[in-house]
Design brief:
The protein is mainly α. It has a domain of 196 residues. 55% of the residues lie in helices and 8% in strands. It contains eleven helices and five strands, in the order αββααβββαααααααα. The strands form two sheets. It has a three-stranded mixed β-sheet. A hairpin with a 3-residue loop joins strand 4 and strand 5. The longest helix has 24 residues.
Length: 288
Amino acid sequence: MTKIRISLFIMLTTLLLCSCGTTNIVPISGRKQHLLVSDEQVMSLSNEQYQTYMKSAKPSTNLANTAMVRRVGERLANAVESYLIQHNEASEIKNYKWVFNLVQDKEANAFCMPGGKIVVYEGLLQYTQDEASLAIVLGHEIAHAVARHSAERMSQQLKAQYGAQALELLLGNASNSTKQISQEVYGLGAQYGVMLPYSRSNESEADYMGLIFAAMAGYNPNVAISFWQRMSKVGSSTPEFMSDHPSDVNRISLIQKEMPEALKYYTGNPVLGTFKVPNHLKSKTSNK
């Protein structure tokens, strides 16, 4: 009898979890995602982690490179915001505040916290080498924020840990359980570095959206191929099936397939300030 009750409890909790939350449509990709946490919850928790990280991080002393990261980042953010406004999707980023930092770290890496707080490591610049390639990286990170990949990870964690933590969430006492999940998701100082990795599908989606965001801002998305080829030389002994990132070969192959779509957004001219939808795309309807 006890086993039956436990099974019924698990089934009921799982059904409740599936019925709660909201269904969101990711801009550009059009993919549906089921979220159990709100923007307010995610950004409040991630801001704590971000502030903790920045207290120990050392900002870059290279003023030219710092200015470049902010210039490229703000140009991308302006283009993305303009696109979302024109497609009646401004609500997707209504609580976002874009911040772009360059920090002293030899690792070739970058990350984005929910709400638009992006950090680039100095070690990455030897592989980007130019502003267009940097735009590919920043476009990728901005895509993670716009696509709410962190909220998606937290929601998946809550579903996986439906027991007591999920019950607390359903009963309205979400603070402790959600905060614990966020610590696992953001994992400052954890074995994976600053943030636990996104899924391979999230990474591929961010690659695709990032290409388009870079093109919107007036950067040639074709540079993504040579950039990832340079990054492949960093080397990794981890097989793709054991990694949450696509292998370099598969990543480049997917980007090559997605390039024709990204080039539709590229006018060949730098776009300063705002992004204007090209004429051949004006007939496309919003994802919402």
